[in-house]
Amino acid sequence: MWKRDEAAAKPNAPAGSPPAPAQHGSAPPAAEATPVKPVAASDPQRGQEKTAVNIGKSVVIKGELNGSEDLTIEGQVEGKIELRQNVLTIGPNGKIKAQVFAKAVIILGEVTGNVTASEKVDIRDNGSVDGDISSPRVAIAEGAHFRGSIDMQKGGGAQKTDGKPGAASAPATPQGQAGQQSTPAAAGANR
Amino acid sequence: MLSDILRWGSKRPGQPDAPGEATVARADEPVVPSKAFPKFISAIANRPDAPVLIDFGPVVGTNVEFFGEHLGCKLFIEDLFADYDRHARAGTLDGLAATIDARFRHGDASVDGVLCWDIFDYLSKPAAQALSRQIVRMLRPGGAVMGFFCTSSVARSPFTKYEIVDQTALRHKYHPGAGGPKHAFLNRDIIKMFDGLIVSDSFLLKSNTREILLRRRS
What we know:
The structure holds 2 protein chains of 2 kinds. Chain A is mostly beta strands.
């Protein structure tokens, strides 16, 4: 389904260790074990134990990545990522060139490609996205980079129908506006 | 009521209720009342379908939430300040105008609203003309364009981004970047640049900034 370009010869290598050079396409599937960090977080709703999987920063994946576990990517992924029922975290070292589908996506690294989330997309400080986002909720931190489109209609569209068009047509005049000179509907009125 | 929805943002933690108090909350990031912005919101809220907006400023999380989550808009962030910055650092600002024509992927008459903020102040006349041509091309009948225009030129000014506080006020925030000289366009130049649109509202603020709302006739 997907292949990792680098054999994970040191699955338990510390995060600070220098990355081994990638050997594209040479790794057999058996050697693709990623550093797996079991998380003792239990799902209160289902009573099942969840695991979070890490893809280390020296790992390069080209292809399609599917799964049903929460995943953190610190390495590079090119292609397609589908975790439709789970949370995908792109770590600060993560570089993604892929279409992303997940329940929730947290971005601290770089993403180039479209991101679709059924719940939320969260671009944290220094996170970067070049692509289109489709999600009912989108949070973008100060310092994040984004270029593309944002479509939140699944969640936000329903709210819009509550608002009557034109309700805001009469401009409110907040306190403290004294001193503004208005010249409505006067083209070139200021000069 | 839409007006209820648009009160969003006015009671965030740490922010005073009264706009007058808000203006002194952070001296380096003043909250400035806007008269054009509520009219811009009104223009896009009247669209029959989910409005399509283009924002030429850098992405601001609260603005995305405001337009996307609360108004149900589809928002395109086209951060022209980043383009300007890139050209300024490379010393190729003269080439910016040429890149604008090919930059936008939007079709003719496909956009309901355009937020220019103050990007025109930084553009040379050819670049400003190229951008305004694209805006006129992309704007749907009944659509609206909001822009801020300075009234006097400035030799060098840092970039500013505008964070929506509520439907009547914007917070002016410093935005990192090269900055650059600001050019003052005459009103007749603005009208000429946006040939095909009408200036529906123009407000001169205390800061000598003109808030201008342009519309395309339905």
